[in-house]
Each structure stands twice: as structure tokens, then as C-alpha cells.
Amino acid sequence: MIHKNVVYLGLVSFFTDMATAMINPILPIFVVVTLHEGMDKLGLIVAIATFVSYALRLLSGYISDRFGIVKPLVVAGYGLSALSKPLIGFAHSYKSVAALRALERMGKALRSAPKDALLAHFGQKSTGRTFGLHKTLDIAGELTGSLLVFGALWLWGSGEEQMRSIFFWTLVPGLVALFIVIFLVQDVPKQPKVQKWALDSSDKKVVKELGFYFLFLLFFFGEAFFTMRAKDVGIPVALIPLLFVLSTLTQTLTSYLSGILIDRFGALRILGLSYLFGMAAILALWPKEELFIWIAYALLGLFTVFSLNAARAFIASAATHRASVYGIFYAAVALCGAAGAYLIGWLWERLGVEAALWYSTLGAGSVALIYTTKVRFGTARSR
């Protein structure tokens, strides 16, 4: 049976990700078209935001385990995100966008590892289903936000004033999420302060097993580049939020299923399946045809939900110091994701979109091939 705290945390993520999804489809266009910045500047913004979002989770995970602090970090993180998103509406340069996006992602960094520790604590043994349900509500919020921004652009246009207004309106769902996390979400029982903290052998083994995931992200296109590829192919700005709707709807419909598969077949096997989804998404970006862009976004949704659910469930089931390992996990995601975003943006701006696609295809394809061969060989050997 799913604990009520998991549901409450899912609702918090629902409203927070609704606000985030109101920004994500238009932010790359706002930077490149409205503010007249280049693809390299967009790549820099994504890199900074990714690094801040994930690297600081290492610190929050350590603090949570070391001092037994969980809910206060979660509340502080959601509060920072809720209050910083609307300020993007006042930005007039890529530097201000980068700073505000980093501030918003700092909130995510503060809350993510302790929040996952909360979910793992209240999820007990059904970690796959727990994270699957939470991700379902999380993605349902993204779906709702994408539909809201599509409706706004369709009704009122996609000009600068309309985009800035959308940024301002993100304050509403952000405050709803903050109310739920403060007044409804329970904290874990008070944990004693750890006098001497260190990762044990199981923690180190978990981090090592996730190494291929970190490498894959070094080569994978982020959402911002999927968006600019859609615009490059010719999809109108007003329709781009529907691509996010497709991606998030795919995640919503398959998240709990991925949790069931994780519990049945193991997190690492499902992680390998996610690499195949990711590789297929990259390949679908190559043809300059709108149909393939829609396919790419659906595959992006499958990669996102299967990989995150599998990685988080694996940590919950195999790690001893969960919050700390979640922090390390997100820090490694930060380093690889930020480096990948910067390189892809630089290649796109300097050498063109095909150079960026070749980098992603060859790099991610190599990682996927090596990992699937490794898993297949390991399975055959164990038999």
C-alpha cells in the first residue's frame, strides 16, 4: 500500500513541475529569439543550470545524512524554486537568465536528495512502485503546465510580453506546492547526528554501477536542444508546447509501468532499456521532418522516465547512506550533463547542427552498445 506521504510529495512535485513546464518550452526561444543570444549562450545557460541543479545535491545529501535533517531542506528547496521562477520575466540578457535559472535550480538541488530519502523511507520495500507513482504525479504536473503554456500561446500569441507574463504566472502553482510541503508532508523520525560519516562498500558499488548513466548524459541532447531542433525543422513556436505534452504524457502513462518492471526484472536491466530509448530519440532528430520530431519527443519521454525511476530505485534498494548516494548521483549527473550541454551548444553554434548530432549519436551509441553487451554477458555468465 502506498503511504500517504508519498502521495503528498507527489502533489508537491505536481504543482512545482507544472510551474517548471510553463517555462521550459519557451525559455530557449526567449533566449535565442527574444533576447537575440546565440546557441552557445543557450548551451551555457543549460550547463550552468544543470551543474547547479545537480552538483549541490551532493552537499544537501551529505547534510541530510550527517545531521539527520530531511524535511527542512525539502521545504527550503521548494521555497527557493517557487520564488525565483517568476523573476525570469524581468530578465533582459542571457546573464540574468543564467543567474535566475541557477537560483531556481539551486532550490531543486537543496530538496532532491532529502526528498528521495523521504520517498525511500515511506516507500519501504516497494521502491519501484513508490518512485513510479511519485514520477507519475510529477510528470502529470509537467503535462498540465505544458497544456497551460500551449493555451496561453495559442490564445494570446507568442510575443515577448506574453512570454514574460507566463513567467510571472508560475508563482501560483509554486506557492500551492510550498503550502503542501510545509503543512501536509511528514518528516522522517528524528535521526541521530552521525559522529563519523563515510560511504560503505555497498554505497561505492552503487555509484560504480551507475557510471554508464553518467557517461550517457555526457552525449545526450537536453530538452532545450530538442526544442531548438523542432524550431529548426519548422514546427511553429505555438505548437512546441504540444511536443512537451507528448513527452510528459508518455511519461505519465508509462511511469508506474516502469516501476512494476523495475521490481520484477531489476533496476539495472531497465536502465539498459532506457539507453535504447534515448538512442532512438537521438536518431529521430536527424531527419528534417516534423513527424520524426514528434517521435523523438515520445522517445525522450520514455528515456527520461525509465532511466530516472530505475536509477533512483536502484539507489533506494542497494545503498546504505541513501541521501548521500542520491547526492553523489545528482552531482555526477551535473558534471556530465553540464559538460554535454556546453559542448553540444558550442558545436551547434560553431559547426552546425549536424556536428552536434554526430557527437551525440556516436557518443551515446557507444555507451549504449557497451552497456547492453555488458548486461547481456553478465546475465549469460550468471546462468
Describe this structure in words.
The protein has 383 residues and is mainly alpha-helical. The chain has one domain: MFS general substrate transporter like domains (Growth Hormone, Chain: A, Up-down Bundle). The chain has helices at 4-23, 27-34, 39-67, 71-84, 94-123, 127-156, 160-169, 171-183, 201-209, 211-219, 223-233, 240-265, 267-284, 290-318, 322-351, 353-382. α6 packs antiparallel against α12. The longest helix has 30 residues, at 94-123. The protein is globular. The chain starts with a helix and ends with a helix. The model is unreliable at 379-383 (pLDDT under 50).
Task: Note the main attributes of this structure.
globular; 16 helices; single chain; mainly alpha; Growth Hormone, Chain: A; disordered C terminus; 83% helix; 0% strand; 383 residues
Q: Determine the N-to-C terminus distance.
A: 34 Å
The CATH topology is what? Growth Hormone, Chain: A
Major beta sheet summary? none
What's the domain count? 1
Which geometry do the CA atoms define?
globular
CATH 4th-level superfamily: MFS general substrate transporter like domains
Amount of helix: over 70%
Mean pLDDT: 88
Number of helices: 16
Number of extended strands: 0
CATH class: Mainly Alpha
If you compute it from the alpha carbons, what radius of gyration comes out, rounded to the nearest whole angstrom? 20 Å
SSE pattern, N- to C-terminal: HHHHHHHHHHHHHHHH
Q: Indicate the proportion of strand residues.
A: under 5%
- Summing up helix and strand content along with how strands pair, one would put the structural category as mainly alpha
